[in-house]
Amino acid sequence: MRKENQSTVSEFFLLGLPIRPEQQGVFFALFLGMYLTTVLGNLLIILLIRLDSRLHTPMYFFLSHLALTDTIFSSVTVPKMLKNMQTQDQSISYEGCISQTYFFILFADLDSFLITSMAYDRYVAICHPLHYNTIMGQSLCVMLVVGSWIIACSCALLHTLLLARLSFCADNIIPHFFCDLAALLKLSCSDTSINQLVIFTAGLMAIMVPFLCILVSYGRIGATILRVPSTKGIRKALSTCGSHLSVVTLYYGSIIGLYFLPSPSNTDDNNIIASVMYTVVTPMLNPFIYSLRNKDMKGALRKLLSKKTYSSN
């Protein structure tokens, strides 16, 4: 990298959440509770799937990876936000900011791909039940997860390398609670047209294409269920699709509205609220929506608790 392209900024300052100083304590406790719920809930999912052999199926294979991804995804931003709220030290080093951006993009994209893999698994299970074991073999499941990691790492690395070549000359105040890529591009005094183009093209591949695949999968599921118009079938469709689609709408709606449908009325505060929805709220809700409302997961939890009770006696 040429010297003139290197950043003259050694650190950035994160303004954090748009809350008043006297509200810091309340919001610190709130987000700490949400973060602990996210971590403990998702780790519980991983533990139950690991210990119960009945959960060693493709659906729960993807769910365990999603739980791990959500745990790390939330850990990329929330601990730093909590530290800033507690210490009132809003600074983050240049290297730390670039690293946070990389891991944020990596696990955001990975989340997207894993949710899509789960939607495909449900599509095969409901629309092609007789061929489910043949189609959703171990090799395909592993390939989908490995492929998700490779594409997510590639997208994150591309964004980060393009970001690292930019210069930040004077303004180093980020109106956000983490090093958001779009906010960083606004601070740069370099030409960011290539970065913007990559955000659009890579975003289509990592966000919009998976989102459309999910919609198609669940559309086919709904059409299959409706071919057999029974109360049981409709109830099954709602239980299969309703909760998942609500999280899909929350997750993808926030991202699409924030990054792909910018509006002049979008203020920094609105952008922060949208970011909180898919970085904090959605990972916290996933354990409840994807597993704790699932009878198999409830059975595995009861089995684990009964073992603990028996061993203690």
Output the radius of gyration.
21 Å
> Whole-Å distance between the termini?
65 Å
Strand content: under 5%
Q: Which residues sit in consecutive blocks of at least 5 with pLDDT less than 50?
A: 1-7
The coarse overall form would be globular
Count of individual helical segments: 10
Backbone structural class = mainly alpha
Helix content: over 70%
Mean pLDDT, to the nearest integer, reads 83
Give the number of DSSP strands.
3
Order of helices and strands: EHHEHHHEHHHHH
Largest sheet, strands/sense/barrel? 3 strands, mixed
Q: Name the strands of the widest sheet in spatial order.
A: 2-1-3
Description:
The longest helix is centred in the middle third of the chain and has 34 residues, at 94-127. It is globular, with a radius of gyration of 21 Å. The protein has ten helices and three strands, in the order βααβαααβααααα. It is an all-alpha fold and 313 residues long.
Summarize the structure.
By secondary structure, the protein is mainly alpha-helical. It has ten helices and three strands.
Notable characteristics:
disordered N terminus, globular, single chain, 3-stranded mixed β-sheet, 313 residues, 10 helices, mainly alpha, 76% helix
Map the helices and strands.
Elements: E1 11-14, H1 24-51, H2 58-87, E2 91-93, H3 94-127, H4 132-135, H5 138-164, E3 173-174, H6 181-187, H7 193-226, H8 231-260, H9 268-292, H10 295-312
Parallel strand pairs: 1-3
Antiparallel strand pairs: 1-2
Helix pairs in contact: 1-2, 1-9, 1-10, 2-3, 2-9, 3-5, 3-7, 5-7, 7-8, 8-9
